[in-house]
Design goal:
The protein is α/β, with parallel strands linked by helices. It has 13 helices and nine strands. It folds into two domains: 169 residues, 3-Layer(aba) Sandwich (Rossmann fold); 131 residues, Orthogonal Bundle (N-(1-d-carboxylethyl)-l-norvaline Dehydrogenase, domain 2), CATH 1.10.1040. Strands 3-2-1-4-5-6 form a six-stranded parallel β-sheet, sandwiched between helices. It has a three-stranded mixed β-sheet with strand order 7-8-9. Strand 1, helix 1 and strand 2 form a beta-alpha-beta unit. The structure holds nicotinamide-adenine-dinucleotide.
Length: 317
């Protein structure tokens, strides 16, 4: 019992308590909105980022900015990290979280990182007595702001109810993929599929155009035929048919091509280490590396259509 209430870490009730002490580390494009939703849900969010402007933004949405990871985690019930890549995650967990947070705290890493590092961090955390989950997300900054992310979770089965409850203010769904590392495996496989399907969609549009078929009319057909996929129905790279797609705003914002490249590299690395054959993933990585290398990594990943149309100049205006 804690203050007359059941201790949240003794059962599956974190988040159903009126207020949970959350440490949130990494308040960037994604973490900023996610931390805001935890604060909005009534939790006490101690927020830390290396960037002073990220800390200011967090303060303006109801989080309590603090000066270090140690200060954020010292009495946390839940620790959430949303950091750029594997090396950041390993360093922050090994040097600043494990041993500094109470051993009853639930540790959740929501960053997209390689499976190997996720398992290394899980071993480190579990060895010190913590419950840990890798919980990467699907959905971009709009879903992070709206609290409608999809989480793919790798954790011990016994911990999942507690993880799901802690993620609830930030999510529309959380699915347990399997044990530690399985969340990252699901994320990497999903995004490799997305990269390939986007390139397939762009190639089909480029061919349709060459054949004199209106790309908008092609949308009407492909979205109701066997070529249908998310890249067509929800993210059509040609402006018009899907008003919310980045193609309607000059491919700004959305999911950056450089981020897609990062995820495709993770997939290729995982394929090489596991012996899986992923020739289309390799091709997708090469095309996004080219697109990034010629200076378009900041555009939405659907802008790769202009590379395949031979119309890169349209991105420069
Ligand atoms: P970002 O670069 O905007 O944010 C990362 C934040 O981490 C930055 O504010 C940075 O200052 C902070 N940071 C770095 N090292 C730190 C440390 N040692 N201590 C404290 N803070 C530190 O990145 P993002 O777009 O928010 O992405 C975060 C993660 O989410 C990445 O792994 C990314 O692949 C994944 N992701 C991003 C998107 C997207 O659309 N942006 C979608 C899904 C998943």
């Amino acid at each position: 019992m804690k203050n007359g209430r059941r201790c949240p870490d003794s059962d599956a009730d974190i988040g159903r308590e009126t207020m949970t002490k959350i440490a949130f580390i990494g308040l960037g494009n994604m973490g900023g909105g996610m931390a805001a939703n935890q604060a909005r849900a009534g939790h006490a969010v101690a927020a830390f980022d290396l960037s002073p402007s990220a800390l200011e933004r967090a303060a303006s949405v109801g989080c309590a900015p603090v000066g270090s990871v140690a200060e954020a985690v010292k009495d946390a019930e839940v620790v959430i990290t949303m950091l750029p890549a594997g090396p950041h995650v390993l360093k922050v967990y090994s040097e600043q979280i494990v041993g500094a947070a109470p051993s009853s705290a639930l540790l959740l890493d929501c960053s997209t990182i390689d499976v190997e590092t996720a398992r290394k961090v899980a071993d480190l955390a579990k060895g010190a007595g913590y419950a840990f989950a890798d919980a990467p997300v699907s959905g971009g900054t709009a879903a992070a702001d709206a609290g409608t992310l999809a989480f793919m979770v790798g954790c011990d089965e016994v911990d999942f109810a507690r993880v799901e409850t802690a993620l609830a203010p930030m999510s529309r769904i959380a699915i347990r993929a399997g044990d530690h590392g399985a969340g990252q495996a699901a994320k990497i496989c999903n995004n490799m599929l997305l990269g390939i399907s986007m390139l397939g969609t762009c190639e089909a549009i480029a061919l349709a155009e060459k054949l004199g078929l209106d790309p908008e009319r092609f949308f009407e057909i492909a979205s109701k035929s066997s070529g249908q996929c998310w890249s067509v129905t929800s993210y059509y790279p040609w402006p018009g048919p899907v008003p919310t797609a980045p193609s309607n705003r000059d491919y700004q914002a959305g999911f950056a091509a450089a981020m897609m490249l990062k995820d495709l590299k993770l997939a290729q690395d995982a394929a090489a280490k596991s012996g899986a054959s992923t020739p289309l993933g390799a091709q997708a990585e090469a095309l996004y590396a080219l697109f990034d290398g010629i200076g378009h990594g900041g555009r939405d990943f659907s802008a790769v259509l202009q590379l395949l149309r031979g119309r890169l100049s349209e991105l420069d205006v």
